Amino acid sequence: MSTHVPAVMSQVIAIRPGRPLTGAVTVDGSKNAALPLVAAAAALLRPVRLDNVPASSDVQTLLDLLRQAGWNTDPVGDDHTVLVLPREMAPTPDGLGEAASSIRASYYLVPALIALCGRARLPWPGGCRIGDRGMEQHFKVYEAFGDRVRVDDNGYVVEAGKTVRGTVSLVLPFRSRGATIAAVLRAVVAGTPLRLGQPNLSPEVLGVLNALTAVGYQCRAGERILTLVPPSSVPEEDVPVWKVPGDKIEAGTLACAVAATGGTARIEGVHAPDVAPLVGALQRMGIPTTNEPETLVVHGRDTQPTGRPLRAMATLAPGGLDADFEPPLLGLALGFPGTHLFSDPINPGRHSNLIPQLVRMGGKITELSSTECRFTGPQRLTGAGVEATDIRTGSALMVAGLTARGVTTLGGVDQIRRGHADLPGKLLALGADICEVTP
Q1: Which one of 25, 154, 172, 286 is separated from 101 by 20 to 30 angstroms, measured CA to CA?
Q2: What is the rounded CA–CA span in Å between residue 289 and residue 298?
Q3: At what angle do helices 203-214 and 177-190 cross, to 10 degrees?
Q4: In this predicted model, what pLDDT tens digit does every residue of 382-429 receive, in sequence order?
Q5: Which alpha helices (H) appear in 367-429, and where do they start and end?
Q6: What gap in Å lies between CA 2 and CA 6, rounded to an integer?
Q7: How far apart are CA 78 and CA 313, in angstroms?
Q8: Which helix (H) or strand (E) element contains residue 90?
Q9: What is the DSSP-derived secondary structure letter of residue 314?
Q10: Cα(175)–Cα(180) distance, integer angstroms
Q11: Rounded Cα–Cα distance for residues 329 and 16 (Å)
């Protein structure tokens, strides 16, 4: 049997319970890490090579937007290596329309567009509908650099103001990943030092800082203060090579799937510290899980459920549980004893997407608020027709479907592909009974 799900635009994924998942699989590059790295490469206005670029549709859309705006983003050698550099032609700062509204990460392009065109006009971002995720903090960042911001019903315009001299200092009211990256990239374009209070220090932000360090920037990232100092000179003949890290969320989703089926598998290509909070949650439930260099190993056959309550609290604090780990972990925890509490104050609409789908499968979950829910396991789900209303809801439903009685049919496959080029294919490679059904 083939171990690859054909890359066709199917409408439904069919999932059946089967044998424990076993084997080894390598995760793709991280969508969440690739998006800001692509934008950082564009902001430098010099050639940058990106390796391990994932084929997820959100990343491909961002590369397409850069091409429309005046950059080359051509594959080099293979589809996972891209050279980013501005073209020698008139830029089109206002040419980004409907495609830019289909993803949230279009806002990462503002500094690069300012560097190339002096202004950025973009529609309001789209992406997953998981609550109000406004851009007020982004706008305050740009205003701190002297930029002018105008908004209307269709989107926003950021126009470069007078050149700022000296260090730009500001404090974020909360640890926003998007606003932190906006501040870092705007400082790159301005060529000025940055002092940022209460930064987000997620692996995705640290990946951008490490990439900038490799081209001469001085970066210090502490829990209270992030500082960035531009290099005194840049050797133009060098083409830096940045590698997109492995997808920690894909690794975590696969780990939950393996654990749910009582399987044992190696998930390769992921940096161990990036998945440490998830590993802690699995171990609390009694699932032996180990981190090796660039590999996550789940020993599901040796699981001894503890019955201890799991408190899965998503947070922006350094070292905390990434909110995107929460949905697949919830799909797993339904099958484990204990009264579990899940909280995601970062994305207040996510539970309202996921919980009704799990209820269709027979799940009994109490919503305590728009951000918190509680349930007691183990619960046995029954296959049903469900919908991936956002990326992580889709991955959680895959985990749940692997142990539900009967067939689970999952729609909204295009949502899953926004974050994962071929998550069903990776599950199939581990032995899951999963296939894509086309009309």
Answers
A1: 172
A2: 5
A3: 20
A4: 999 999 999 999 999 999 999 999 999 999 998 899 889 999 999 999
A5: 391-401, 413-419, 423-429
A6: 10
A7: 39
A8: none
A9: B
A10: 8
A11: 19
